[in-house]
Design goal:
- There is one protein chain.
- The protein is α+β, with helices and mostly antiparallel strands.
- The protein has helices at 4-14, 60-77, 97-113, 165-174, 188-193, 198-209, 215-224, 237-248, 263-268, 274-278, 281-288, 304-314; strands spanning 21-23, 31-32, 38-48, 81-91, 117-125, 131-141, 156-160, 178-179, 185-186, 227-232, 251-255, 295-299, 318-325, 330-334, 337-342, 345-347.
- Strands 10-12-7-13-11-14-15-16 form an 8-stranded mixed sheet, sandwiched between helices. A 4-stranded mixed sheet has the order 3-6-4-5. A two-stranded antiparallel sheet has the order 1-2.
- α3 links the parallel β4 and β5.
- α2 (60-77) runs parallel beside α7.
- The protein binds adenosine-5'-diphosphate and magnesium ion.
- Adenosine-5'-diphosphate binds at residues 8, 11, 25-28, 87-89, 118, 120-123.
- Residues 8, 11, 25-28, 87-89, 118, 120-123 line the site of adenosine-5'-diphosphate (ADP).
């Protein structure tokens, strides 16, 4: 049986007191000093075992990493800078101290990477699955937060990085592929088929189990003032773009040939490749698969060059994939053949 006190002291030992933290873990509440002239950004995510993650698929370090990563991604999608986090966990009755240590490793490694201080949380027990709730506090310059609602007809649509890798990773995991303790690809399907590029399988599963939030990219995009609207791709491109459309009151058209597919998807989606084809092919994964945690944003029609400069400056691919248009529908342009897409599915009209 693990004692709550032991967990809190383990967390407290690890927590770094960053600039701006006046009182951290150990008191009734944390006290932090906001930067001058900054506005506060607050968000949280609740990760539930069996719904958002599975302990059979994910080592505890990656479960901890992802629980914090998804919330850091929300701050990035506002164009903000994450500063502090609070982590609440409700442990299963059979949770071991080793599991908790490893879960904390994942959380603290990611927090340190982005200079985020863990300033508190809560520890409890669950009568069922494991729960992890992460709260992140961030900042942006006054009036600089990038909302979902600012896109206008004529704006271009951009996405950072690549799409479909996480959905491919999920598909592999569902088919029995695993990452074993030594970081190698394993699992009955992988071994019996003897096929599949190991590196691509590994990358796809890691993309799903331990996504890297676009923290620096979100901050730079926000500070540049270039984005008229922004969201992170958590539910899938079609669904998240629909959220931007809905909040901004316009439609959008995206071009098939511009979609930046994940390398792992390109490598593994060879003709006749079983599970990807069964699942609707690479395009379906890139368009409707979720959890890539890339940033999807719009910018004025003259912003193309500036976005190119930004992309070079931060060293990350940013692809222009379409534009905002009149109306409320999401159009998909495949070399001149235009279809309406409903979020997560096709509807043929031409
Ligand atoms: P209270 O009874 O007032 O809720 P706790 O004993 O739960 O106090 O918490 C003591 C301190 O430990 C607080 O600073 C709290 O934020 C911190 N804490 C508790 N659990 C966690 C956790 N899982 N992660 C980070 N900090 C935690
Ligand atoms: Mg408490």
């Amino acid at each position: 049986m693990i004692k709550e006190f032991d967990i809190i002291s383990a967390v407290r030992k690890r927590a770094r007191i960053n600039k701006g933290v006046l009182i951290g873990i150990g008191d009734d509440a944390a006290v932090v000093e906001p930067s001058a002239d900054a506005q506060l950004i607050a968000c949280c995510d609740l990760s539930v075992e069996g719904i958002h993650f599975r302990c059979e698929w994910s080592p505890p370090e990656l479960t901890g990493h992802k629980a914090l990563a998804v919330t850091l991604s929300d701050v990035a999608a506002m164009g903000g800078r994450p500063r502090h986090a609070m982590v609440s966990i409700a442990l299963r009755r059979d949770t071991t101290p080793d599991f908790v240590e490893r879960l904390l490793d994942g959380i603290f490694d990611l927090a340190e990477r982005f200079n985020v201080s863990i300033i508190g949380g809560d520890t409890s027990k669950s009568s069922g699955p494991l729960f992890i709730d992460t709260v992140v506090l961030g900042e942006c310059d006054r009036g600089a937060a990038v909302a979902r609602s600012g896109a206008r007809v004529g704006d271009l649509v951009f996405v950072t990085g690549t799409l479909g890798g996480s959905a491919l990773g999920l598909l592999l995991l569902q088919h029995g592929y695993r990452i074993d303790a030594s970081g190698r690809v394993a699992g009955s399907d992988y071994e019996s088929s003897g096929s599949g590029d190991e590196r691509a399988c590994f990358e796809a599963m890691m993309r799903h189990l331990a996504p890297t939030p676009r923290v620096n990219e979100g901050r730079v995009i926000g500070e540049s003032g270039i984005a008229t609207s922004m969201i992170d791709v958590s539910d899938g491109l079609s669904t998240d773009l629909s959220h931007l459309m809905q909040e901004s009151g316009c439609g959008a058209v995206i071009r098939r040939q511009s979609l930046p597919l994940a390398d792992s998807l390109r490598v593994l989606a060879t003709p006749g490749s079983g599970i990807i084809e069964q699942d609707g092919g690479p395009l379906r994964l890139a368009l409707h698969g979720g959890e890539d945690y890339e940033l999807l944003f719009t910018a004025g029609p003259s912003a193309l060059e500036q976005v190119g400069e930004l992309s070079r400056e931060i060293g990350i691919q940013i692809t222009e994939i379409g534009a905002m248009v009149d109306g409320r529908a999401l159009f998909f342009d495949d070399r001149g053949m235009v279809e309406v897409i409903s979020p997560s599915g096709y509807e043929h009209i031409i």
